[in-house]
């Protein structure tokens, strides 16, 4: 096909196609942004409900006498499994960094572990089946 012999497309037709494309694209983007906004709003509401529930549970637990001294241990494996990708690697890199604060934290953790070994025979909240659901929720 010799392109010099092909007639040009009419300008009105080109403008109509361009306008139709712009209108459909804008409609799609408006629908997409509306759906995204609705989903984010629903997610924000759900997060607020969860925070409220956690605050209520925390208040209920703090109202129980004798639980002020009780501490439970969260394993670092659970914490690392929640994070993903480069963030987890950065967190482990920061933990393994040879800073003086990290050394002090490690020494404190070792001291806490030694005291936990001594108090293993004592019944703690972590071992109490009544609080198992709450502790599992805290770990999650």
TrEMBL record:
Where does this protein have coiled-coil stretches? none
Any one Gene Ontology BP term:
exocytosis
In its UniProt entry, what is this protein called? WASH complex subunit 3
Entry annotated with the keyword Coiled coil: yes
Which keywords does UniProt give here? Coiled coil
Annotated GO CC locations: WASH complex
**Comp. bias intervals (Polar residues):** 90-108
Which stretches of sequence are listed as region Disordered? 90-111
* Pfam families tied to this protein: CCDC53 (PF10152)
* Family that this chain belongs to: Belongs to the CCDC53 family.
